[in-house]
Write a structure and sequence with these properties.
This protein is α+β, with helices and mostly antiparallel strands and 416 residues long. The chain has twelve helices and 16 strands. Bound molecules: zinc ion (ZN). The site of zinc ion has 8 residues, from loops.
């Protein structure tokens, strides 16, 4: 499987963003540390109230990409976002306007900050049945019916038909009705108590929403962002994927309603609540019994001279330690002992949580690549790892801020 390339710093958040807004921040401005402030999500009308607050910041995310200025996340005020969207609607041709979502009168969009969001609201989903039906959940109906909710077989809802789409109330969608934005969610508060909203941008839209910004994906930009911004973008990408792809109830197939400021979905047919899902994946650095060497693998998908730790998803019913032992054995042939947890990293491609381990190889002669996912396994001495970490070797190691890199660097530092 692919390996992380983004930051998952365990450093404590540092100081706040400047009051003047991230667009004014210089390249060495303070990191943006956002507290999730999860208790606020339950407040009725939170998104609409925050959209009307001029101090509120908005992080726009399109798939896994976000706008950057000078290598930093470019957040904007809600009013500026609405204004940019409205300006784009005025100047864009019919084709561009169509790709940016439902056409709205520019005046309407520009006045959006003063409107209130009626919660719960499923208006964004109701407006986009075609997109929703392409979601990962709806593509796996058989799996969905075998979900944990099937533990309640007495409830006669599993075969209930989905309700037909009904038109949303005229202003219930605000602040949803900014062209090109499909969903909104509350990401948290900065240390100076400014709210940060997530705006999920429709595919093909959004370039005009943040002037002068370059859009870059998390996997490319995450390693270079300050820790707090990398964490914020990771959360935003993970949550936006769920908002985009999980519109339908996995238990009964009905269209769900968003609640808790974008962090929960309520099924109006069977009554169940659904939350953003995370898939556990394990990644492990293997050492020789003496601890003086590590065993890395070259993935078929990478090509060339790139080596990394072994990794894979935990299967249903499996402990993390069992997943480590199984994945490593499948990919490299070795058996393990002393499997020890080392730390974790969220990786929203699409919704993984990477759990990092270190383990000792029982018998070195067993090491043999599976020839499918892993094309080569190779023992590296401390000197070889050192030169690769310094970029003085033809061997390439995982990206700067990935958990795989951290596992390798930790080992290298300990044995120095
Ligand atoms: Zn349901």
């Amino acid at each position: 499987m692919s390996l992380p390339a983004s930051s998952s710093s365990q450093n404590p958040p540092s100081s706040s963003a400047a009051d003047s807004g991230p667009q004014d921040r210089s390249a060495d401005a303070a990191d943006l540390a956002v507290d999730r402030a999860g208790a606020e999500r339950h407040q009725p009308g939170l998104l609409g109230n925050l959209a009307a607050d001029p101090r509120t910041l908005v992080l726009a995310v399109r798939r896994d990409a976000a706008p950057l200025i000078d290598g930093r996340l470019a957040l904007v005020s809600f009013a500026d976002l609405a204004s940019s969207a409205a300006g784009s609607q005025k100047t864009a041709g019919p084709e561009a306007a169509a790709s940016a979502g439902p056409q709205q009168p520019a005046e309407h969009a520009a006045s959006a900050p003063s409107l209130q969001l009626a919660e719960p609201s499923a208006s964004a989903e109701l407006a986009r049945p075609a997109e929703s039906t392409a979601s990962a959940e709806s593509a796996r109906p058989a799996e969905s019916t075998a979900s944990a909710e099937s533990a309640h077989p007495a409830e006669p809802t599993a075969s209930a038909p989905a309700p037909s789409a009904r038109p949303a109330a005229p202003d219930a969608a605000a602040p949803h009705d900014i062209p090109g934005i499909t969903h909104w969610a509350f990401l948290g508060r900065t240390p100076d108590h400014r709210a940060v909203l997530l705006a999920v941008v429709a595919d093909g839209a959004g370039d005009e929403l943040v002037p002068d910004a370059d859009w870059a994906p998390l996997r490319a930009a995450g390693g270079d962002l300050p820790a707090g911004e990398a964490e914020l973008l990771t959360t935003a990408v993970a949550l936006s994927g769920w908002l985009r792809d999980a519109a339908f109830c996995p238990a009964c197939g009905a269209l769900t309603e968003l609640r808790q400021a974008g962090w929960s979905r309520h099924c109006p047919v069977c009554g169940r609540e659904h939350f953003p899902r995370t898939d556990p994946a394990v990644i492990v650095l293997l050492t020789a019994a003496e601890g003086d060497r590590v065993l890395l693998g070259a993935n078929a998908a990478w090509g060339g001279d790139r080596y990394s730790c072994f990794a894979g998803f935990a299967e249903a019913g499996e402990s993390l330690e069992d997943a480590v032992a199984r994945e490593v054995n499948e990919e490299s042939g070795v058996r393990l002992r002393e499997i020890v947890y080392r730390g974790s990293q969220a990786w929203p491609y699409p919704r993984s949580l990477m759990l990092g381990f270190r383990a000792v190889v029982v018998d070195e002669v067993e090491a043999l690549a599976d020839g499918e996912e892993i094309v080569e396994v190779r023992w590296f001495t401390r000197e070889e790892i050192g030169s690769a970490l310094r970029g003085e070797s033809a061997v390439h190691l995982p990206g700067a801020a990935s958990i795989a890199r951290r596992l390798i660097e930790d080992w290298y530092g300990e044995t120095a």
